[in-house]
Amino acid sequence: MRALCLAGLTLAALAASPGHASAQAASSLSCSGIAKQGGLLTCTGPADVRIRVAGEDGSGARTVRSDERGTFTVGLTRKEPSPLILTATEAGIPPLAVDIAPRNDDFRLLRGLDCDKVDARTEAQLKHVEESWLKKKAAFETFNDGPGASEGFIRPAEGRASSPFGPERKYVGTGADGESCEKVSVHEGYDIAAPVGTPIKAPAPGTVILADPDLYYEGGSIFLDHGRGLVSVFMHMSKVDVEAGEQVEAGDPLGLTGNTGRTTGPHLHWAVKWRNQETQERDGDFYIDPALLLALEP
């Protein structure tokens, strides 16, 4: 896999270009992809070894493992330090430094929500939230084989890009009795504004690990495991046309866009989570920028 923005560049040019993964001739670790905060690297090195990934000062440290082919992925957080140092200590090879381009995310204010969607308040709502959380937790603990991002990604629906990955958003709502409420969170997906009923298609091959018409905040949702730790999440759907366990190819129909869950209007929220397959602890997993995945090609 390579990034479109890397096409035609030599290794020497890559090594001198901030924001792109580079490989040193003397190193047996190499990476390609989008080396930007929120991006994804696909790397190669010795087979079945642990690789420490961290900033120069040790910040953001985590350990990943290469597979039997020596391949591994490195998701990049929206605050990833630069340069990022990859070290395969047990393999006795030199580390690889990757310059990470910064993001410039803004702040957004969203009004017009019902307070019940800003945050659950009643006993029934809290129960719905808990049931939804348990379903999502079980899905994210499920791992399937697949190509990951190696076959590229396509846009999952037609429509205008209405909200990017990364901004901090403040939700302001009104309750049934006129009271106000607010909540601040980071937008961890890519929104496509589309009328209710717009077809949604798989952006890449994968296995459906969750298909639910009524999660509390997400509404109708599908979780699609692409392999190598990558999961696409589709939210606010009006119709879910697949079931857990189904395998789909890029372009296969998944369902229809909607206005369900916590929304301010009809749209598809597409998120992609990177999960570290080296550990069974899921608290180190995080979302990456789907728009950057669209810049990848096989």
How are the secondary structure elements laid out?
Elements: E1 2-3, H1 11-15, E2 30-33, E3 40-44, E4 50-55, E5 62-65, E6 71-75, E7 84-87, E8 96-98, E9 107-114, H2 115-118, H3 123-140, E10 160-163, E11 168-174, E12 180-186, E13 190-193, E14 199-201, E15 206-215, E16 219-227, E17 230-240, E18 247-248, E19 253-257, E20 267-274, E21 286-288, H4 290-293, E22 296-297
Parallel strand pairs: 9-11
Antiparallel strand pairs: 1-22, 2-3, 3-6, 4-5, 4-7, 7-8, 10-13, 11-12, 13-20, 14-19, 15-16, 15-18, 16-17, 17-19, 17-20, 20-21
Question: What is the mean pLDDT?
Answer: 89
Residue ranges: pLDDT <50 for 5 or more in a row? 1-27
Q: Percent of residues in helical segments?
A: 10-25%
The CATH architecture of the largest domain can be given as: Distorted Sandwich
Number of strand segments:
22
CATH topology of the largest domain: Glucose Permease (Domain IIA)
